[in-house]
Specification:
Blueprint (H helix, E strand, L loop, with lengths): L14 H13 L4 H15 L10 H14 L8 H12 L1
């Protein structure tokens, strides 16, 4: 990325949320400023928010399942094994 003029971004958020975000960033080996810059870079690249906001956990689970299939991360079941697995999930 080319050197460009820098500017300051000021945001207000809950202190607890900020501290938790800093901890996550630190666990990734970056600081919160770098994490925010990564988010904004990805936002620009995708011309939108770089994740799908949703309150629907089923949609989130389905998106994850589809991603798993695309990545080849699948488990093979017979029909009987699958039905038994579904029964276990219900419990």
């Amino acid at each position: 990325m080319q050197d460009s003029e820098k500017t300051r971004l000021t945001i207000h958020m809950d202190l607890d949320r900020k501290q938790k975000a800093e901890q996550v960033a630190n666990n990734l080996g970056i600081d919160l400023t770098a994490a925010v810059n990564l988010f904004i870079s990805q936002m620009i690249k995708e011309n939108g928010i770089p994740f799908k906001p949703s309150n629907n956990s089923l949609a989130i689970d389905l998106d994850q399942a589809l991603a798993d299939v695309k990545n080849g991360d699948v488990t093979h079941y017979s029909v009987n094994e699958f039905m038994a697995h579904l029964d276990e999930v219900k419990d």
